[in-house]
Amino acid sequence: MKKRLKELAALVGGTVVGDDEVEISGVAAIEVAQAGEITFIASPKYLPKLGETNASAVIVSKEITPSPKPLLCVNNPYLAFAKILTLFSQKPYQPKGIDPNAWISPTARLGQEITIYPFVSIGDRCWIGDRVTLYPGVFVGEDSSIGEESVLYPNVSIYPGTVVGKRVILHSGVVVGADGFGYVKEGKKNVKIPQMGKVEIEDDVEIGANTTIDRATLGKTIIRRGVKIDNLVQVAHNVVIGEDSIIVAQVGIAGSTKIGSNVTLAGQVGVADHIEIGNNVMVGGQSGVGHDLAANQGYSGSPTLPHRNYLRATTVFPKLPEMRKTLIEIEKRLKKIEETLSSEGKEK
C-alpha cells in the first residue's frame, strides 16, 4: 500500500509543509526509518533527530518550524501516528471458515464469514455474529453471544450466559464470567454464595491477556463501550466500568464498585468494594482506593488523596525523622519551662 502525504494529512486532519506528493509505504521509528516511510516526533527532546532521520516525512506538532523534510503538522502527533500506523498495518479480513476439529453445538447460531480454528468449543444456544474470529482453544459457554467482528485469541474462556459486544478483542487467557468471590461465614466454615448473575461486555472493548472478569452475584457485571483493560487485571462481581475508561495492568477492583466514564486507573491500583469513582478521574499507580472519589480530579497514594495534597505529603515523608527529633526536643524544653514555672509558683 502506498499513500501520498496529502492523503495522510486528510486522514488525520493535518497540514503538509513541503512536498505533499511524496509517497509513503510504511511507518517506522525515527532512528530506523528509511526512504518511503513516515515517522513522528511527539516530544521536543527528539527534535535534533529531525535532521538525521532517513524517513521521507515526519509527523510533528504544529509549532515545529519547517525543515528539509516534508512535515505533516497536527495537533497531536502521537494520535496521528496511531491512525496512520493502523492504516498501514491492517489487513483485509479473510474468513477461513470452520475447522473440522472445532466442536459446535447443533443449537448454536453462526453468522456469515466467520473464522473458527481447531479445538474451539461453542455451547448450546450460543450466537456468534458475522466475521467473528475464534482462535484455538476458545471456549464459549451455553447461552452466550459474541457480536460481529470480535476476535477471541487462544484459550479465552467465556462462561455460560455471557454477552460480548461488537468489535471486542479478548487476548489470550482472558476469563469472562467465572464465579464472583462470594462467601459468608458459618462459624469458621466458609459458605459459598451462589453467583447467579451475568457479565455484559459492550462494543469496542479490548481486554488484555490473563485478565479475569467475574459474573455478578445477581444482576450484571458490566464493561461499558470503549473500555480498554490491560493484562492481569481482576474485575470482581457486580462491578460497572464506565465508557472509555482505561484500566492498567495488575489493577484489582473489588465487588460492586462503580467506575465512571473516562476514568484511568494506573498500574497496581487497588479498589475496595462498594466504591464509587466519578467521571474523568485519574488514579496514580499503586494507589489504594478505600473511599468514593469525586469526579474530574486526580488522586494518588494509599489511602488516596487529591494528587496535589499527595505531592505535598510526599515532600514531608523524608523529613519525618528530623521532625520527630525536633518535637521531642521541644517537648523536653516545654517540660522544663513548666517545671520552672511550677516551682516559682510554689515559692511565692
Description:
The chain has 348 residues and is α/β, with parallel strands linked by helices. It folds into three domains: 87 residues, 3-Layer(aba) Sandwich (Udp-n-acetylmuramoylalanyl-d-glutamate--2,6- Diaminopimelate Ligase, Chain: A, domain 1); 213 residues, Hexapeptide repeat proteins (UDP N-Acetylglucosamine Acyltransferase, domain 1, 3 Solenoid); 29 residues. It is built from four helices and 40 strands. The strands form six sheets. Strands 8-11-14-17-20-25-28-31-34-37-39-40 form a twelve-stranded mixed β-sheet, with helices on one face. Strands 9-12-15-18-21-26-29-32-35-38 form a ten-stranded parallel β-sheet, with no helix packed on it. A nine-stranded parallel β-sheet has the order 10-13-16-19-24-27-30-33-36, with no helix packed on it. Strand 22 and strand 23 form a beta hairpin.
CATH topology of the largest domain: UDP N-Acetylglucosamine Acyltransferase, domain 1
Number of helices: 4
Mean pLDDT: 93
| Gyration radius over CA | 28 Å
Keywords:
twelve-stranded mixed beta sheet, 348 residues, alpha/beta, 3 domains, 4 helices, Udp-n-acetylmuramoylalanyl-d-glutamate--2,6- Diaminopimelate Ligase, Chain: A, domain 1, ten-stranded parallel beta sheet, UDP N-Acetylglucosamine Acyltransferase, domain 1
What is this entry, summarized?
With about 350 residues, the chain is α/β, with parallel strands linked by helices. It is about 15% helix and about 30% strand. The longest helix has 28 residues, at about 320-345.
Topology:
Blueprint (H helix, E strand, L loop, with lengths): L2 E2 H8 L2 E3 L5 E2 L1 E2 L9 E4 L16 E5 L9 E4 L2 H13 L7 E2 L4 E2 L4 E2 L4 E2 L4 E2 L4 E2 L4 E2 L4 E2 L4 E2 L4 E2 L4 E2 L4 E2 L4 E2 L4 E4 L4 E4 L2 E4 L5 E4 L4 E2 L4 E3 L5 E4 L4 E2 L4 E2 L4 E2 L4 E2 L4 E2 L4 E2 L4 E2 L4 E2 L4 E2 L4 E2 L4 E2 L8 E3 L4 E2 H10 L3 H28 L1
Parallel strand pairs: 4-5, 5-6, 6-7, 8-11, 9-12, 10-13, 11-14, 12-15, 13-16, 14-17, 15-18, 16-19, 17-20, 18-21, 19-24, 20-25, 21-26, 24-27, 25-28, 26-29, 27-30, 28-31, 29-32, 30-33, 31-34, 32-35, 33-36, 34-37, 35-38, 37-39
Antiparallel strand pairs: 1-3, 2-7, 22-23, 39-40
